[in-house]
Specification:
The chain has 11 helices and 14 strands. It is an alpha/beta fold and about 325 residues long. The strands form 3 sheets. Strands 2, 3, 4, 5, 6, 7, 13 and 14 form an 8-stranded mixed sheet that branches. A 4-stranded mixed sheet has the order 1-12-9-8. Residues about 1-10 have low confidence and may be disordered.
Length: about 325
Amino acid sequence: MNMHAAASAQAHRLDHRTSAFARDVVEGLTKHPKRLSPKYFYDAAGSELFEQITLLPEYYPTRTELGILRDRAKEIASLIPPGAALVEFGAGSTTKVRLLLDQCSFSAYVPVDISGDFLNAQARMLAADFPALGVYPVTADFTASFALPAAVDAMPKVGFFPGSTLGNFEPHEACAFLRSARDILGPGAQMIIGVDLEKDERALYDAYNDAAGVTARFNLNVLVRINQELGGNLDLSAFTHRAIYNRERHRIEMHLISRKAQTVRILGRSFAFRAGESIHTENSYKYSLARFTALARGSGWTPRASWTDADAMFSVHALVAAE
């Protein structure tokens, strides 16, 4: 880091978390093609925007998964040992987890998320509504190893990973996450996971290009974070949101496209963009039931049960850690 960049970093008081953000932004924008990690969508503003996305008429995953969890809650509950600790990877809104807590005899809930302020606010509200439940929020990057609270050490563990977030990982990263989750939860652990399914391409396109433009604001929010936290000078009007379906790779791709040739500055460094050049911000892989089952088995989990909606838009799976 040169002296100008170091001074800029000091001016913006880079703590451990923000330093990681800075490192990843600089690394991602020097790649060809340029990339930014989707985990940086979820600051407080990004988390709120995503909650708005889940309510959009075009965005089917949330309401469809909620329907499966609601309709199959008793079947899911029958697989879960009483007194278990529920560990939610990437906890956001508590709407889905409340369905499980209402039906299952959990002793503790451990929400894990990188956005600490949003996480703690949600945890406080849930703890007030479930006074007999031990609630132990953990601010951490759930894609890396982290320690569970000592209070849940002796409890059976059940992981919860709803919302098709697994699709945001490259297949090898999804395998690595599932292996890491198995190691964190321990022997005999179970996992309840949501997985988006392959479907009509028009439904996919509309879900990520909503008419109200909320997904566009969500995508652009990562540039807002760069400006606010890293002293960037990015002009949001000089970038546009684009989401496309890559049929060969079974994935939606989200991009931020530079509207013109431009140079931006972040932490004292310059990054040049050609007109039409992309920052690739997110992938969302869609699975068949067979491909997800193979992924789970290859990652150290044994499938126990799976459920879909009537239109086979979405799926929920129960897994158990392989011995």
